[in-house]
Design a protein that fits this description.
The protein contains 6 helices and 13 strands. By secondary structure, it is α+β, with helices and mostly antiparallel strands. The protein folds into 2 domains: 132 residues, PSTPO5379-like, CATH 3.40.1640.10; 107 residues, 2-Layer Sandwich (PSTPO5379-like fold), CATH 3.30.2040. It is globular and about 55 Å long.
C-alpha cells in the first residue's frame, strides 16, 4: 500500500498540502466527492490569447475556470488560491509537441512567460451522480479519442476525447439532468449509446484507462474529457507547455452539485 492510498484527506486544502509535500502522488478520482476538480494547461504568454479563444469556442470541452498572469504561479478560483506548480499530484511537460517529463513538482519547469489555465474536469460529476443514486466507479473512467472535432481557427484544434461511464438504462435521463446542471464538469453527455457513432470502434480498448465492462442493463454514456486540450497541444507547435498527468487533478474548495 502506498502512502497516497493510506492517507484520507478530509478537505481539499488538506489534500493540496499533502500533494505539495509529495505525500500524495496518486490519482484524484473518487476523492472528496462534491468538490470541483480541474485540469491544467500551461502555455507561453505568446499563445495564451489563442488558448483562451480555443476555450471560449469550446466551452463544454474546456470549461475555463481561471487563468493566471504571465509568470505568476498563483491562480485563484472562487476565493481558492493555489500554487499551480505544486498542488497537482503529477504533471506532464511538453517541448516542441513531445512529452519530455512527468514530474510531481512543476517548479523547475515554470518560466517567466508561463500562463496557467484551470479547466473544469468530469471527475467533478461523479459525486453528484452517486448522490443521485447512479453508481459510478471511484476509479478514473476510460477515455477514448472520438471522431468529433473541436471548433475554432487557432492553432489549438484536434479530436475530442470523451470519458465513458456505464449507466443503467432507466437512470440515463437522470444522469443527463444531473450533469447538465454542472457545466464546470463538462455538463451533459455529448453522446449516449452506440460508440461507433462517434468513431469508437472498440469500446474494450480505451485510449487511456481501463475498460470497466458494460453490463447488459447498462448503456455507455460519454462526456467531454480534459484530455482533449492535450491532444491539441501535441500538434500546436509550441516550444513549451505543461498539463496535468491524466487522472491527477487539481482539487479546489468549491462544493458542486446537489
Amino acid at each position: 500500500m502506498t502512502e497516497s492510498v493510506a492517507l484520507e484527506p478530509a478537505t481539499p486544502a488538506e489534500l493540496r498540502g499533502l500533494i505539495a509535500d509529495t505525500r500524495w502522488t496518486g490519482p484524484t478520482a473518487g476523492l472528496l466527492d462534491g468538490h470541483q476538480q480541474a485540469n491544467l494547461v500551461v502555455v507561453p504568454s505568446s499563445a495564451a490569447e489563442e488558448f483562451t479563444e480555443y476555450c471560449r469556442a469550446n466551452p463544454s470541452v474546456c470549461p475555463l475556470l481561471a487563468s493566471s498572469a504571465a509568470g505568476d504561479p498563483y491562480l485563484t478560483y472562487d476565493d481558492c488560491t493555489v500554487d499551480i506548480r505544486t498542488m497537482l499530484p503529477r504533471y506532464r511537460v511538453w517541448q516542441h509537441d513531445r512529452i519530455v517529463d512527468e514530474p510531481h513538482d512543476l517548479t523547475p519547469w515554470w518560466r517567466e512567460d508561463s500562463v496557467a489555465f484551470a479547466l473544469g474536469c468530469s471527475h467533478t460529476l461523479d459525486g453528484p451522480l452517486r448522490r443521485a443514486g447512479i453508481p459510478v466507479a471511484t476509479s478514473a473512467p476510460p477515455v477514448y479519442v472520438s471522431s468529433l472535432r473541436t471548433l475554432g481557427s487557432t492553432r489549438f484544434d484536434g479530436p475530442v476525447a470523451v470519458s465513458m461511464r456505464p449507466v443503467r438504462a432507466d437512470f440515463v435521463d437522470r444522469a443527463v439532468d444531473v450533469t447538465a446542471a454542472l457545466p464546470t464538469g463538462h455538463g451533459a453527455p455529448i453522446h449516449i449509446g452506440d460508440p461507433s457513432a462517434i468513431g469508437i470502434t472498440d469500446l474494450g480498448t480505451p485510449s487511456y484507462g481501463v475498460f470497466p465492462g458494460v453490463h447488459a442493463d447498462r448503456v455507455p454514456v460519454f462526456w467531454n474529457c480534459g484530455v482533449t486540450p492535450q491532444l491539441a497541444l501535441a500538434a500546436a507547435g509550441l516550444e513549451y507547455a505543461a498539463t496535468h498527468y491524466p487522472g491527477h487533478m487539481l482539487v479546489l474548495d468549491t462544493v458542486v452539485g446537489p
